[in-house]
Write a structure and sequence with these properties.
Layout lengths: L3 H8 L6 H6 L4 E5 L11 E5 L2 E7 L5 E5 L13 E3 L2 E3 L6 E2 L5 E3 L8 H4 L7 E4 L2 E4 L23 E8 L3 H7 L3 H7 L1 H4 L28 E6 L3 E9 L7 E9 L3 E5 L3 E11 L2 E10 L5 H7 L40 H11 L16 H18 L18 E4 L22 H8 L1
Antiparallel strand pairs: 1-10, 2-3, 3-4, 5-6, 6-7, 7-8, 9-10, 11-17, 12-13, 13-14, 14-15, 14-18, 15-16, 16-17
Length: 435
């Protein structure tokens, strides 16, 4: 369980909140680049950490992120005209550059005024198919964080955004709950489960591809300079005595990398506000990514569930989240796809789940470590320090999913970012301790 005070501390992300101040120290994804694909395309209204912003691409292709409301009289710039290297407010025609500089004030001829007033703007980067912004103190602006997916050819990467009306932590914790993979995602993780004849999925793009039917893996988390790695151990099905090790990184403040045989899923759970989250999924690998297939695997190919136009995850309790009860004779969840199942579970908990009411088990070790690292970060920032992972180059952080001999120390699979390779037991010793 998590005490109510700590639950509030880690879930609330608005201005001035402890967790909100942590998030503001990192570069965060704001939108997918294709949402503002062309110069002078329609502006995009977004929410980030409880703040309302407008994102636009000017006539030269530069991207700006500004406070949504015009500094003149508070009209929304998201209704404005994007033209002539700026965004123009509909109300009185004030026009702003991507850095917030006033370019034109049709109802005020005082040229000096333009130098005294600016729209609030934020540092922006465009990398890896995403637009990123930094909302923290200017004096603390960190180096931009790089990920492996930023260095692959465009055709080897596809980027999706799914807006879910649930607190970010409910979605984030699901990504560090290895035991749920073979249960909630039974349809893709354990083909044949209905006949008790479980086999490994042959889909090399499947992020829920498990080596064997083992829903109580042994877990071992280890802190790093970006958050932590955790390893989940399962008996390998295809090698006598070997153990499958599935390693997943937690990257502060709210990122994970999920392994699949032929590609990785880098997932950002970015809070829009306390009760809404933008999930950014970057699917990338050494070969071209089939976007349509990825969307179908995630369960996002049904327009009643999701569309790229507004990115909203649409199911609600009003239609039982689209769950097909009749299909549950041969479908574990009655839902379609990994992301659909994860989003529905998060929504079913309510906007912000009270974790003081839960009862944890050993399979929740990585979930507990997520909370610990986040709470540690709030205390560090309150004391004026830098939270873990700020400005760290993450381009070498991966997510191995391999079979190893039992005398292996799994830390040797990820020998970087401060992980103590000489520390800890071999896989055999860890399994013995857990038995």
């Amino acid at each position: 369980m998590l005490p109510r005070d700590d639950n509030e501390r880690v879930c609330r992300v608005g201005p001035g909140t402890p967790m909100g101040e942590v998030f503001r120290r990192y570069w965060l994804p704001v939108c997918v680049s294709t949402q503002i694909a062309a110069p002078d395309s329609d502006p995009l209204r977004v929410s980030l950490l409880g703040e309302r912003l407008v994102v636009f691409r000017d006539s030269n292709g530069k991207v700006g992120v500004l406070d949504e409301l015009c500094p003149h009289r508070g009209a929304s710039l998201a209704l404005g005209r994007v033209e002539e290297c700026g965004i123009r407010c509909l109300y009185h025609g004030w026009k702003f550059a991507v850095d917030g500089t006033i370019l034109d004030t049709p109802n005020n001829r005082d040229e000096a005024f333009k130098k005294r007033v600016k729209a609030t703007s934020y540092p922006v980067r465009e990398e890896g198919g995403l637009v990123w912004a930094y909302l923290g103190p200017a004096a603390k602006l960190p180096a931009f964080t790089r990920y492996a997916f930023m260095d692959v050819p465009d055709e080897h990467r596809t980027v999706l955004r799914v807006n879910v009306k649930a607190n970010y932590l409910q979605l984030l914790e699901g990504g560090f709950d290895s035991s749920h993979v073979g249960i909630l995602h039974s349809n893709v993780a354990r083909p044949g489960w209905i006949d008790n004849a479980v086999t490994r999925s042959t889909d090399e793009t499947n992020p829920a591809n498990l080596s064997i039917d083992d829903n109580a893996p042994t877990l071992d988390p280890e802190n790093t300079d970006f958050g932590f790695y955790y390893a989940a151990f399962r008996q390998a099905a295809d090698a006598a005595g070997a153990i499958n090790v599935r390693v997943v990184p937690f990257i502060l403040p709210s990122t994970r990398i999920i392994p699949a045989p032929s590609q990785h899923f880098t997932v950002f759970e970015t809070p829009a506000d306390d009760e809404s989250t933008s999930t950014f999924l970057v699917i990338h690998g050494k070969a071209p990514v089939d976007r349509a297939r990825a969307i179908a695997l995630l369960g996002l190919d049904d327009p009643r569930c999701w569309s790229e136009h507004d990115c909203a995850f649409k199911p609600t309790w009003a239609d039982r989240f689209g769950q097909d009860r009749a299909r549950m004779r041969d479908s574990w969840s009655g839902l379609n796809g990994v992301e659909q199942e994860d989003a529905v579970i998060a929504l079913s908990m309510g906007p912000i789940f009270d974790r003081s009411k839960e009862h944890l088990v050993p399979a929740d070790r990585a979930v507990v470590r997520v909370r610990q690292r986040l709470l540690e970060a709030t205390r560090v920032v309150e004391k004026g320090g830098d939270p873990v992972g700020v400005g760290v180059d993450l381009s070498d952080v991966g997510a191995p999913d391999v079979n190893v001999a039992q005398d292996t120390n799994w830390r040797t699979l990820v020998p970087h970012h401060g992980i103590p390779i000489t520390k800890g037991q071999t896989v055999r010793e860890l399994l013995k301790l857990a038995s």
